[in-house]
Amino acid sequence: MGKISPLKLGQRGPDARQEVPMRTPQRLYAEKRVVYHPELLTCPHCGELLVMWNDLAWDKTVQKLDRVLSIASRPGHCPKATCRGLHMRLLSAEAQRMALPGSTYGYDVLVRIGWLRQHQRATSSEIHTDLSSGLHISPSHVRYLYQQFY
Question: Domain span at residue 139?
Answer without folding.
Answer: 106-150
